[in-house]
Each structure stands twice: as C-alpha cells, then as structure tokens.
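Field guide to reading this record: the first block holds the primary sequence, the second block holds the structure written as discrete tokens, and the final block holds curator observations. Each block starts with its own label. This record concerns ATP-dependent zinc metalloprotease FtsH, catalogued under organism Streptomyces canus.

BLOCK 1 — SEQUENCE
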Amino acid sequence: MSNAAPARKAPDQPWRTEGTPDDGPRPPGGRRPRGRWWGLAVTAVIVFLLVYVGLNYLGGGDEPTISYTEFSRQVDAGNVDKIYSKGDAIQGQLKQSRDDPDGGGDYTKFRTQRPAFADDALWQNLSRHDVTVTARPVVQQRGLLPNLLLSLVPIVLLVAVWIFFARRVGGGLGGAGGMLGRKAPPKPVGLRPGTQRTTFADVAGIDEVKGELDDVVDFLEHPDVYRRMGAKMPRGVLLAGSPGTGKTLLARAVAGEAGVPFFSASASEFIEMIVGVGASRVRELFAEARKVAPSIIFIDEIDTIGRVRSGGASVGGHDEREQTLNQILTEMDGFSGSEGVVVIAATNRADILDPALTRPGRFDRVVNVSPPDRAGREAILAIHTREIPLAPEVDLARVARTTPGMTGADLANLANEAALLAVKRKQEQVTQSDLSEALEKVQLGAERTLVMPEEDRRRTAYHESGHALLGMLQPGADPVRKVTIVPRGRALGVTMSTPEVERYALSEEYLRGRIIGALGGMAAEQVVYGVVTTGAENDLEQVTNIARGMVARWGMSERVGRLSALPSDAQQAYGLAAAPQTLDVIDSEMRRIVDDCYAEALRKLTEHRGQLDALAEALLASETLEETDAYRIAGIMRLKKDAEV
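BLOCK 2 — STRUCTURE
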C-alpha cells in the first residue's frame, strides 16, 4: 500500500488531489471560453496593423529623395547609370556617389518626381548620355509574405511575455491572480480508474483518534441519515499533536475510508508576496471541493496563517496572511452542512491559533493526536515492516518497549534505517541486531571514529559508569538498557535508560531521581579525579530544564507555591511573566534542588566505589555493556515490573 503524497494536477495549483475525477474531453459543439482571450486578441491585431503599416510605409529604404533639378544636372553631367520610371515617379542609380544637397550624406540610389509641366526632352537627353531605362525597379521592395512574417514576430514575443507573467503572478491563465479575465467554466469529468487509497488499515497506534473520526467517515458515507435526523456534522476538524504523530496520514485515511475526493495543501502554499493571491486560491480550492462533493479539504500546518491576529495595522506579507485566513473563515461560514465538504486541518501549535478559527461553527471539533503507547508502537512497527523481510528472531514487542515517546514517523525511520543496515551488511533479512543498532543511530547519532588518549578514555568510562550506577541504585529510576564509550554524535559516551512502562504523570521523587542520574557523570569524575570537565554540558542542560519545571511550572517548591510562575511560550506572547522577586526565588529553589541531588550523587558513588570501578573497567575492556551485563557486573538485581508483560 503506497502512502506517497498525492500529486498536483498542475504546477500552478497550490494543492494536491487524491481520488478526484480527471478532466474529460471537451463536449462536441461546446463553446471555447472567450473571457480570458479577448484582450490578448485585440492587442495582437493592433500590434499587427502598426507593424505592417510601418514596414510598408515607413521602412521603404534609405535612398534619398532629390530635386528634379539635381536629377537633371546629374543627367547632363553623364553621372546617371540607370533609371526606372512609373508615371512621373523616377528611381535611379548614379555611376559615382554624390553629396545629398539636403545634408543627408553621400548617395548612389535616389528617387525624384518629374513635374507635370516639365517639357525638357527627357528621353532624348537620357539617350544622348547612354542612361539605361530598366523595366524593373531600381530599389526592390519587400513582398507581402516577408512583411507578414516580420510583423508576426513582435506578436509572438508579446504573447510569450503575456503568458509568462500571467503564470508567475496570476497562477496561470485565468488563474488565482485573475490577470486574464474570468476562469473557464468547468468541463465534464470522467472518473479516474481505481487506485490504492490510504485507509484506517494503514493507521495504527491511535485508535482513540480513529474512533472520533469514524463519525466523519459515517457522515460522508451516509449523509441522508444525518439530514433526516436534523444532525449536522462539524464543519471543521482540527488535528493537534506533535510532529510525526500521523495527522496527515489520518486525514488521508478518512478520505480513503469514505471513498471521497481528498484535497490537501500546506497553508504556506497559499501565501504570496502579492496581497490577495492567497485568498483567491482559497476560493478556488473550496469551489473545486464543492464540485466533487462529498469531499475532504486538508490544510496542513494551519498555524502558518491561523495565528492570533494583531490589532495594529499591517502591510505586505502579514496583511496577505490575514486576508487568506479571513477567506478560509468566510468559506467555512458558507457551508450549510448539505454540501458534504469537511475541512480537516493539522497543527502542532494549537495554542497559538486565532480564536475565530476554533470557535463552534468552524473548527468545532479538536482531536488531540498523541504519540502512541507501547501496544500502538508495536502495531505501527508491524505496518512499517510489512514489506521488509524480518528474521524469525525479531521481536517487535521488545523494540516497542525500548522506544517510548517515539512517534509514527520516528518508527518508520527506525524500520528504514534497519533495512539500510541489512543491505550494507549484504543480509537477506533484517535481524534484531539491525533494529537495535538502528535505534541507537536514530536516538544517539552515528558512531564516530575518534582516537582518544587513554586518560580521556578512562575518564569517559567513569563518567558513563556514574550515570549507569546511579540509574541502577535510584529507586523508581528508568532501568539502564545500554552503556557505551563509543563516540556517537557529539557525545563521547552514552548511557541509555528507558522506562519499563508508559509514564503520563511524573512524581517529584522520579524527577529528583532523573536529576541525580544526570549528575552521575560529573559526580563520578569528582569522586575519582577530584575535577570537573566539559563532558557534563548536555547533562547540565537536562538538569536545568527538569529543575526549572519542578519549581516554576509543576508546583514542587514550597517557597514558590502552587503556581505556574513561568508560563508557556504562548502565554508569554500576551505579556505574562514572573515578577523579579519571583524569578529570584525560582533561581534559589532550582539551585537548592540541584545541590541536594548532587550531594546525594556524590554520597552514593562514594559508598559504592567498588561497583563504580568494576563498571568502568568492564567498559574499558569491551566498550559497550548491554543491560544484562551491566547489572551483573554492578552486582545489582533488577526487578521487572508486571506492567512490562
């Protein structure tokens, strides 16, 4: 089953379609739309006439017109070679060039006009000076066909420039910009041959979300049942969740499950520098969806244009964003519920959306899409490994237990990385080792070839052993899965710890345990070497974030109290911030918690120095310790929880 993004029908169309009918042939006798071409046709005719007249009457040649007196003088001087006469008009050519009496420079060919009253025996004079009287014009003029071809060149250039700018600015001829008039009326369509669509069978790990969207599918499949009951479906469904949780896949699955056309676009694709283009594209998108209703419109990353609007004046791109948002709101207000068009939008910043967008009557159903639990991750891995040959010993449930917090996109990447490793190793199947190594690469980064001095290598071994030992000793801490001193990414060594069960509410004891474990590396260096190095930079960042959350957001400090003293980023936008005195208290409490945890880490490592040395020596010998070996060397029994089963 292919889950590739549907393609656009035209390059200038800012949305993609799936399951829509294709354009069929034009009906016999149908009239061709004239609205966008009449201006171009009139302009082309005017340009043609101007060029044609210019070529015939203004571009006749560069021969000068001389006086008849000058012509007679040149004949008498014997300097005229030949002439051609038509009526009283005379064309001629001199034997030797002469200066133009009117200041036009030298000339050889000329034209003149014989006066009607002249009685100068011209023929006898020409014969006496051996002047040839030709039957063909001395100066040849271009014919009709060359003049026609030359006059068409600027018209072709004009049409090419016109079409170029129409596509760039207006989104195509008669497109969103409206440069060339109104858009052509829609043509009759024929159904596209059946193709594979994404359905709920391709979505796993978020069953509760699928349950909420089942109503939308049922409405699209049986709209008459709802109409008879007087019920109306939500006009819009907002999918809110972290990146990679499957919001786009869900929207496509709803359309595929119901068997209706699916229009998808990113909100940023509607925005252009020219104000008004985005709103026009929105109108066109909704009009196309209504033509093939029942249908689904999906707008990804709607927070791009749906942010809270400011009260001040705005110009440029900001004004274009607001106009596009206003047009979306207007189009959604235009739904009566009978069109059968459902709008689904996705965002990972639902907290910054404009209230007008999420009020009842627009996106009145908000569905939160969370990362999957352990059973969901196992189901997602099963979907993404359907086309990957797995070895018999592969245990997807085991992989799911070691990937807490990973989204569907992360798990898809994990399966792909494992397949790539198997190809590099020239294997026929993906093994459990491939999946484990792919997980380390995804979470920790690729291995680096780094030659470290023996002293730095030993210090790194004690650093990681401190993390691991405190993770084993601390009650309620996440179990240690792997310890390694092989450099990965920016780290010189890594200790992997993942929870036994899914955690949705974190206790103060658990958070203090995480701080103690994070400080274990620095504490081990202090206990063994009496110094602190820069290797604890990332550890300190984690410690700071946890301590700040405990004190300022989760009410785990008596001095600060049960307050959210440091609001989230969205609330900061409204100007809410802690008072200076409160910030001082927060800083003091954070230092107190971290200092207490560091003292606890130093005490435990000092008391268990023998186990710390044993882990460090084992790491120096084998570089990597798996979970079972690490607990065995440390002499600590790990009790598995029933929830893991």
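BLOCK 3 — OBSERVATIONS
Residues 580-607 form the longest helix (28 residues).
Residues 454-644 form a domain with the Methane Monooxygenase Hydroxylase; Chain G, domain 1 fold (CATH 1.20.58.760).
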